[in-house]
Amino acid sequence: MMDCAAQCLQGLPRCLSYGRVFRRSGAPLVVGALVALSLLFGTPGTVAGQKTGRIEGVIADAETDEPLPGANVLLAGTDEGTAAGADGRFTIADVEPGPYTLEATFVGFQAQARDVTVSEGETTRVEFALQPSVANLEETVVVGYTEKSRRELTTSVETVDEADLKDITAGDVTSLLQGKSSGLYVTTGSGDPGADPSIRIRGTGSISAGADPLYVVDGTISGGVLPDPNTIESVTVLKDAAASALYGSRAANGVVLINTKQGERGSETEVSIQARTGFNEQTTGNFGVLDGSQLEGLHDQMDGSSYAGEDFSQDTDWQDLAFRTAMTNNVEASVTGGSENTSFYLSGNMYREEGTLEEDALTQFGGRVNVSHSVTEDFTVDTRLNGRYTDETNNPTGALYEAYTNLPWDAPRSEDGSLRTGRESDWVGRDNTNFLYPLQYNEDKSRQYDFNGTLKLDYSLLSWLSFETTNQVTLQRDDADQYRDIRTQPGSENEGELFNSYAESTTLLSSSQFSFDQSVGKHNAGGIVGFEYESNHYSGFDAEGGGVFPNLRALDVSAEALDVQGTITKSNFVSGFSQFNYNYDRTYFASVSIRRDGSSKFGENNRYGNFYSIAGSWALDNEPFADGWEEVQELKLRASYGTTGNASIGDFITRELYNFGTPYNEEIGARPTQQGNPDLTWEIARKTNVGVDVSVFDRVDLSVDAYRRVNDDLLQNVPQSSLTGYTSQIQNVGKVRNQGLEVSLSTINFQEGFRWTTDFNIGFNSNEVLELAGGAPVPDAPNANQRLEEGEELRTWYMRKWAGVDPETGAPLWEKKITNDQGTVVDTELTSNYNDATLQMLGSASPDFTGGLRNTLEYRGVTLSTFFNFVYGNKVYHSARELFDSDGGYLTYNYMELEDDWSRWQEPGDEATHPKPVAGGNRNSNDVSSRYIEDGTYLRLKNVRLSYNLPSAWTRSVSLQSASVYVSGDNLLTLTDFSGMDPEVGLDGVAGTKYPISRKVIFGLGVSF
Amino acid sequence: MLFCLILLAVVTGCDGPGGVDPSDRLPPEDAVNSIDGLTAATQGNYNRFVSGGYYHYARHLFYMKEFPGDNVSLSGATTDPLFYSHTLGHKKNQTSADNVWTLGYEVIYGANRVIDEVEPGQSAERDQLLGENYFLRALAHFQLVNIFGRPYAQGRDNLGIPIAKSPDPDAQAPRNTVGEVYDFVVEDLKRAAGLMTQKKSNVYGSEEVAQALLSRVHLYREENQKAIEYANEVITSGRYALIQDSTQYVTWPTRSPEENDQTIFAYKFTEEDNKDFGAIGSMYYTSPSGKGWGEMYASKEYRDLLDQHPDDNRRGFIEAKRDDTGDVEQRNGYPIHYVKKFTGQGGNVTLSSPVILRLAEMYLNRAEARAKLDRDQKALSDVNKIRKRAGLSGDALYEVSELGGSQTALDIVLRERRLELAFEGHRPLDLWRNGRDMVRSYPGIHTETNIAPGLNASTTPATQTIPPDHPRVVHFIPEREIELTDMQQNP
């Protein structure tokens, strides 16, 4: 201890991490006491000597004016220095008179130097205002089952901290990650507040198996419950094998680590409250539907339309009736603090977001308790409890679809003001529905109950060896109710219908490990050996009843039972893992990890799999030859290689089974539904990564990574001839490669007076299917109208190629390839016969690159930040145009407005983009073809936020620690050529009758005391 | 250390990766090792005809067999695959063809599993199950070969479908000829008829059901004497009767098959199997509360034929939708004439158990066979039997003296088959297998879109005469299956 304190006084940077380690175990008090003692004993001597001078001062954060306790000061060229106290003040006594350079340093801040002159018997005063540095090399990052400082990392990880995460207003953490980490692609197909976005790390490598990353919360594999956004301290994305291999059979698609907030030992209790409220409205992009007279114009042009020449006085805006300006409200409160042996973090929050679609709303109540207590010096208990209640109300009608397709000519209400059903004889629209009618009566609700409890015991066996065990239970329950009133069309058949369902899942996880840490001279070694067991159970039940008197909601009132369904499924994992780290002088780093996993999901012949990784890094800036590189804080090269697995498949798919869920005539029926495959095993991802981390001038931080991931033995649903009795069998075949480049760059552009920082990230990924079962292309995979083919990208569109409109006849044209006897294409001609047109590969739904750009300007407590995200080069199939851009195919659906550079064919000689409109359709012109493939590239102003932190002098006068107000706007602007409401679509690349994302304007207020 | 021991104890008490079993499925050895298991496995094969969601086997089967014909008129374009079956603008990747193909072979595979498991002659109960599976295998082959292969009468050597006669068929086998498939079907049905001795209800296979199908198969094969013999077996079995009461007759779709004496075999749909908007009847009828698409109507030509005799009780299956003033309402300019042959079972608008075989067909099979054997008098007597049941009498009945000139006994039989079996999937094949043109010169979306290649679009209205040798008399083999097997595609 004394040894360390002495080193600290020398101000050596590597000491800082020791300081941190000690603080974690309650040492700051001890250090503080030592400092106080030294002052007590030192000061009298100073007074007595009178031949020396003293330096007094204060060290504060230049941005917030907050004091920086623990910051170090050192007289350059001497051993003399000290650390600032709780109020940021420091004193160095007994300084020989003369000129000095005084340096102040602190973790996460740029060092600052001042020239001072000390005179005999006098006190020199110095004030330091430290600027935050762009990167914090000593910040600890949780990786796998261990923690490391950033400097020690050998792997490719990227961390998004709380401030950057929480600019957007959303109820789930995944939405917040969009655009914030290079190589992370987050996209959502719906603006429904309850919709889950899809997330991919470094492209999609799996075909039939799931390709979602593994979520790990506070170091433990998540049982499916992710923390509420307000309780998240940071999110770290583990991308390469070295970082993720410890998670073995489930880490092939990367790992997202989420760390929740913790209290700090020995800190004062702090209460913080945040409240925000605002408005949401639908984004409509370049899209619009025709109004009544525009639609009349179209029918006047249309061949054979029975509505040509008709004049409708009605002009209903169905979009306006379906959508609304909605509200978002959010209140969060937390209490954090600690005593000598205990730290705690308690939080509660309420989040409510109304959807822009009428009736749609999401309400969440969440709470978290994180408590850590040291029972003895060697034994720590850590408890984390997280609960959440989610209530969702969905629009129970076809409003979303009908808003696009209902005719402006149909009035929603009759003359007496009552709502029309759509079945009136003068209703023109195709579907004969008016969503406002069932909206009065019907209901569609769901509720979710999530709970996660973790108990962690940590016991220090020896000074270098500890044992840790984590035990976690995750409970989830989903309920859904649907009510279909007898007065509405959906409920009429059975005289009112009620549908109730519940599903619950339980995940138990127990993980135990020994950790060791030992340093001998410049050799530092550490490692873990552990064991893990996980068991999953899922069961569900639903029932439907008919004959329900209006406005009753419990199934017992139903006059007849209509349907009963149920499901139960189980799986488990047994794993052993170990990892060893070694570094020499914190310059050369190496790590090795091994994991063995067994799972019930796999065939009896291949139940266990082994995964490993090796990684190394070299901190060039620590080399003797780098001694003169004053401006280089970090220059590190990293390389890693390893394997991970993918087990995201159904629970019993390796077995040959008869399914008893196939009754006939109300009697038991069974049929063979699954072919066995006892050899089935993990999908393996082999990942290679090389990267460089550079940090210079305290103002520029750059990471560049190049990677290659080859997923082998893919779990693939191999299509089979129907003659076999099955349409597919899951096999370990095929290979997909993802490779790419990622850059993340953070800079402080300006920091004199006002501060301007920029964060930029971009990830390029290219994908190729290397090998398929038997080499043959797979139709309609992974999604409809796409095809897997060796040498092509996954998610490549495969359909007929649109060739425009015949100027003479206005008929649609497609490409037809003429092949010779050998099957090679010798010529291309155009055809108006859809069947004759040739199916071809027409570009991929995956983007070439994605990324984000943040700029932050700060001046005297006022902060303005803007955040853009962008997606480039993906092809979107705008499937909804089959419905509302059908050239008469759907005679009585509404039509979309033509984009500026589109035109309809009217007479011979017209060079048009749209065929002649013909009632009943013009030769399948609206059938699936590249006509509806559009560029999905967009640049979106995801967030703008203006906030003001009230001056601390002012807040302290009203007993507040801090107070801030802000206004924030989400999705204010989107630049795109896409013709629909919103270019952001699900991973499959299909834009249907979309629920567009919301544009939000939020006002917020935060105080802490 | 103590903790480690506790932990070890906890973990060893848990299931290992091998110790978890499913709760809703069983391995084959547990499923088919008992008579109950074999019964369940047979039930599961019937299940394929009725299960599924919006798109299911029975829906596709009835639409693909009926909609190419002249009894129906569609009131607007749709992307539902039925559209292409109706306009004959078949697509190579048509969902309905893909679906029927896959489900049909699932029936065949499931039947083969049971056939493989059961030795004949062990017990009557086992033989019955074995017979039912032979029947199901034959039925599926027969239905598929008539959708994807040309009519038998056009030549035995045309390509049919691959025969699958074991649970482990050669998936790369080329298509068998139509003749081979028909031979296989006849063999299976004869074996089935011999094995089945139990009289289950008319939603299961039985000796008479196999014989009834044999009557049809032989009729299609132009083996007229055999068609008559098997029809006679069924007619004289005493298990079935024509519904003589007019009110009872037109309401038969509203009753369960077991309550209809005329039904020989039907696919039983229960409340649980109700397909709502995906039901067969949904396309034909919209209830006052809006249930059902109601977009496919009885054609003007069919209605005119039916309306020749106001007493004909079969008019009761057609219902015009009228507004308050009594005028027939229109959809996209086409008058709405609903068809109610697949609606209202147990009071449920979209529920029906579609009939595969019924007694009237046996009379009409016999009539057609007799007409072809020049036994005109007997043929007309069969036809009159049906017409009397339809409430007709006097001049509305046929006499041999009316024959000659432009009208033959076969003409009369085919017209009666059309009237009686309309919408049940007979009409197009009845024309084409007899070498006759399908003429659809009445209003409907088919005249506007005119997708079938080779039809003349330049006339107004576009020509809608589909000759029996037209390539689109049959559907394309699913594109997916072609890609997986190198099977030869239909032209």
Unreliably modeled segments of chain A:
1-49
The total number of structural domains of chain B is 3
Could you state the oligomeric state of the chains shown?
A: heterodimer
Find the biggest chain interface.
A-B, 90 and 93 residues
Global geometry of chain B: globular
Helix residue percentage of chain A: under 10%
Secondary-structure-derived class of chain B: mainly alpha
Q: Helical percent range of chain B? A: 40-55%
Mean pLDDT of chain B: 91
Order of helices and strands of chain B: HEHHHEHHHHHHHEEHEEEEEHHHHEHEH
Q: Tell me, briefly, the overall form of chain A.
A: globular
Tell me the strand percentage band of chain B: 5-15%
Topology record:
The complex is a heterodimer of chains A (1009) and B (491).
Chain A lengths: L1 H9 L4 H10 L2 H23 L3 E9 L10 E4 L5 E3 L5 E7 L2 E8 L6 E7 L4 E8 L9 E4 L2 E4 L7 E5 H4 L7 H4 L7 E4 L10 E4 L12 E4 L2 E2 L10 E7 L2 H4 L10 E6 L9 E13 L9 H10 L16 H5 L3 E13 L3 E13 L6 E16 L2 E16 L4 H7 L30 H6 L1 E20 L2 E20 L4 H4 L4 E24 L2 E24 L13 E25 L3 E12 L8 E12 L12 E15 L10 E3 L11 E4 L8 E14 L3 E13 L2 E5 L8 E5 L2 E16 L4 E17 L6 E2 L6 E3 L7 E5 L1 E4 L6 E8 L5 E7 L7 E6 L4 E11 L2 E11 L2 E3 L3 H4 L48 E3 L2 E12 L2 H6 L4 E15 L21 E11 L1
Parallel strand pairs in A: 1-7, 13-16
Antiparallel strand pairs in A: 1-4, 2-3, 2-5, 5-6, 8-9, 10-15, 11-12, 13-14, 15-16, 17-18, 17-51, 18-19, 19-20, 20-21, 21-22, 22-23, 23-24, 24-25, 25-26, 26-27, 27-28, 28-29, 29-32, 30-31, 32-33, 33-36, 34-35, 36-37, 37-45, 38-39, 39-40, 40-44, 41-42, 42-43, 45-46, 46-49, 47-48, 49-50, 50-51
Helix pairs in contact in A: 1-2
Chain B lengths: L1 H11 L12 E2 L1 H4 L3 H16 L6 H10 L5 E3 L7 H6 L7 H23 L6 H25 L29 H18 L11 H14 L3 H12 L10 H5 L12 E4 L29 E3 L1 H7 L11 E3 L9 E2 L2 E2 L1 E3 L15 E4 H14 L3 H14 L19 H13 L5 H7 L4 E2 L5 H5 L15 E2 L12 H7 L6
Antiparallel strand pairs in B: 2-4, 3-9, 5-8, 6-7, 10-11
Helix pairs in contact in B: 3-6, 3-7, 4-6, 6-7, 7-8, 8-9, 9-10, 9-13, 10-13, 13-14, 13-15, 14-15
